[in-house]
Amino acid sequence: MNEQPLPTKAAFFAYFAHHATPLERQLIENCLHTVQGTKAYFFYLDEWERQHPQFHPDLDSAHDRYEQYRLATPPLTSRQPIVSEPAQPVQEPPPYPWHRLGRLSGGWSAVAASVLLLLSLWLSADWWYYKTLTNDYQQIRTVTLPDGSAVVLGAHSSLRYARYGFGVGTRRVLLTGEAQFKVTHPPDSKLFSVQTPNGTQVEVLGTVFVVNSRRNKTRVMLQTGRVRMNIPKVAQPVLLVPGDVVTVSAQGHLQKQRQTSLPAQVTWQNHQFFFQDTPLAEVANQLHDTFGITIIIPQTELMNRTVTGTFQADKADDLLEALTRMMQLRVEKSKTTYKLYQ
User: Residue 323 is part of a domain; what is its CATH number?
Assistant: First the structure.
């Protein structure tokens, strides 16, 4: 799909100054649905704010006040002559006023602290612009976004969205891993979009769907409503209806399937694993994504054997034990890996 050109710098500046035309505003709001557009928006916003600071010092007035002070202060030669005092006995000098040095150095410390603060703000720009939620292995949690949409974030997954203005200027999130979304339908019908690392974008209004984005591959499962997918190497958007499962490979290839038992696909929320003719190699990947363990399958024939069934497992060992008994496999376990043999 061809990307739309970004608005010009002048258009961004007019938008920030509230002078943009309706067409320019629409172009800028549309570009916020892309990674490059968002980066350009905040880049030009930083430049515009530097050129339009909230505080404008009046240098001419300050200079005039200094001149008045200088003229009102008599020069040193017109002051009273200094009268010599009789010599006094030599005394030990008083202790050096280190506290005064502390006050002097305090000013430099304040300047240094300000510089460090500005530097840290610049380095942590992403933290100010975005809020990121990250789950560890075996961790699942439910999050409510500012627009009221609910997200069930899967294990070893992360979700990023705008820290300020979410639901007003944009409803775009970036997902790495797996999550289920229950999207609210706002009065202004503003689209909700999920973007994955391989560039796939899922756009919806109000619906329930699951997105899995791992190993540069994206899979979308639609439960209710309708969604539209924009895929970099596919010319036309892909429309999904309930029951559709669309997979985009790392090479950008598209595969669309129908699932009659779609609710079982999202049983990972209840620590259940649903497999339907799933190759054992894919099962090993799911175990790694959920529990963080590494499974090695040296035999190619064994990697292609398929598994069908629903398994309840709170720990990796529980699921491995069930699979090895059902498939009559042998397991070699070390500190960090499991090896499966026929």
Answer: 3.55.50.30
